[in-house]
Design a protein that fits this description.
The chain is α+β, with helices and mostly antiparallel strands and 484 residues long. The chain contains 18 helices and 16 strands. Strand 13 and strand 14 form a beta hairpin. Helix 8 packs antiparallel against helix 14 and helix 12 packs across helix 13.
Length: 484
């Protein structure tokens, strides 16, 4: 589940920064609605890792004010947004009174804004009034994100904008903040610590692709005694997955500009398609190197080649079944391949289309005659609802909403890849890996001066396979369920 960024953040994040050292400073305020958001969930634990990063400020709010045990300085509750009624000559029972929203840090007033809102009086509970007042206060205090579950503000779980403030439930907020930090080259792994892009993505793959770790470890055995072809193919697969995830982020960032650069959008979508499909192609070559089917050349080892699938079927039927015609794997691979191939023709072009009463949409589009069988595959995978994937199909063109399509293809493509990793016959490679481990003499002792660094590394490695990365990338099942 990708989300567009606040325009003020997209300005910093729009450049394609490839060096982790070239970090852009982040200054971002997040307000937590303590009345509706629990801090005891796995979602909030993942969000807390992001909130602890340098430059991200966390604030809290409650209708009844801060708890009595909150630390105060000069009477001000530190780290809280407080709404206080101003002195007024109006009727004290008035439902609309001048108020100010103030946030404090270390006893200093960070910002204050005068506004008008309904004040709750004893015995006159009015949820709608307090909800509206919170939304107004978050906007007036210039919060980047308000994390809340109030129906009045976020409906049934969708994110909404109010001025420059994104009001979102925790499931949406964690994905948006994760995207903001990655777009600024910050890669949080544990509270108060970050790492480089490559290490972060390597840890994330074990969460996004549960069967990848065993597949990669087995393939590494082919390089244990020399320069093995399978080992090189596996490292190429990892690199292409990294590139696909980066392009996924850049698609959302490019779509978040105040003035969208459609060349940048199309470039990000093209790179996503190229690298995700390239990762799939590399897995086919790994299977070829392991199985060595008769009368097949390496260059014919592709999931769309029927002879390759037929050669696998007798000995590895479950693997061949992944790409049987009309299967989910076949359809996803076909959609990726056909959209990728538009690079060699007219490509994905910028278009504007008026959609009934929904207004003007800004999309990419491609003629259907350039993407053979695309419409049929999309209709099968979406059960007749192509708009779920950000696609509108007419007799002549396919209209593409970039963020929604890239998000859907990430989920479906990664599911197909994980099935490939699970069903690849790794037995011979695993045996080879065991032999290699027997030849290892042992691990050197760690110097005392290096123990703190090793301790941090151990804490980072402990996150491998955790739900945290699913939350950060917007690919947790709870996020997908609420995005429909």
């Amino acid at each position: 589940m990708l989300a567009a960024l606040p325009p003020s953040q997209a300005t910093n994040a729009q450049a394609h920064v490839n060096l982790d050292s070239a970090r852009v400073p982040v200054e971002f305020d997040v307000l937590i609605d303590c009345d509706t958001v629990s801090e005891e969930t796995s979602c909030f634990e993942a969000l807390n890792v992001l909130l602890s990063q340098h430059g991200v400020s966390i604030w809290r709010y409650a209708d009844c004010g801060p708890p009595t045990d909150v630390r105060r300085k000069d009477g001000a509750p530190i780290g809280w947004l407080e709404i206080v009624e101003l002195d007024t000559d109006e009727d004290p029972t008035s439902r609309r009174a001048p108020t100010h929203a103030t946030r404090y840090s270390d006893g200093k007033t960070v910002s204050t804004a005068i506004m008008w809102g309904g004040i709750q009086y004893a015995g006159e509970a009015n949820a709608t009034s307090s909800d509206h007042l919170l939304g107004q206060a978050a906007e007036s205090a210039r919060m980047g994100i308000l994390v809340t579950k109030r129906r009045e503000l976020v409906g049934r779980g969708e994110a909404r904008w109010r001025g420059g403030t994104l009001m979102a439930p925790p499931e949406r907020a964690v994905a948006t903040l994760g995207l903001i930090l990655r777009g600024n080259c910050h890669f949080p792994v544990t509270p108060y610590s970050t790492t480089g892009r490559g290490f972060y993505l390597a840890l994330a793959l074990d969460s996004l692709l549960p069967n990848y770790g065993l597949w990669a470890a087995a393939c590494s055995a082919d390089g244990a005694f020399g320069q093995g072809q399978i080992y090189y193919l596996s490292t190429a697969t990892e690199g292409r997955l990294f590139q696909a995830l980066n392009a996924r982020d850049q698609t959302a960032i490019a779509m978040s500009q105040t003035r969208i650069d459609w060349v940048e959008v199309a470039d990000a979508v093209d790179r996503f398609l190229v690298f995700l499909l390239a990762a799939m192609d590399a897995t086919a070559r790994v299977v070829y190197e392991i199985v060595q089917p008769d009368k097949m050349r390496p260059r014919d080892a592709k999931w769309q080649v029927s002879d390759f699938i037929k050669a696998l079927r007798p000995s590895h039927p479950s693997l061949a079944a992944l790409f049987a015609k009309g299967s989910p794997g076949h359809d996803v691979h076909l959609i990726l391949r056909q959209l990728r191939n538009t690079i060699h023709a007219g490509g994905l072009a910028k278009t504007h289309v008026l959609v009934e009463d929904e207004g003007l949409e800004h999309n990419l589009s491609v003629p259907l005659d350039e993407v053979e069988d695309l419409a049929e595959a999309v209709l099968r995978r979406t059960r007749g609802n192509p708009t779920d994937w950000g696609l509108r199909l007419t007799d002549e063109r396919a209209w593409v909403q970039p963020i929604i399509l890239v998000d859907a293809l990430t989920r479906e493509g990664f599911a197909t890849l994980d099935a490939i990793f699970e069903r690849t016959p790794l037995e011979a490679l695993i045996a080879l890996s065991s032999d290699a481990e027997d030849e290892v003499d042992g691990t050197d002792e760690v110097d005392d001066s290096d123990r703190s660094e090793w301790s941090l590394m151990e804490r980072m490695l402990a996150t491998r396979g955790s739900d945290m990365y699913l939350w950060h990338f917007g690919m947790h099942s709870d996020q997908i369920a609420t995005s429909g």
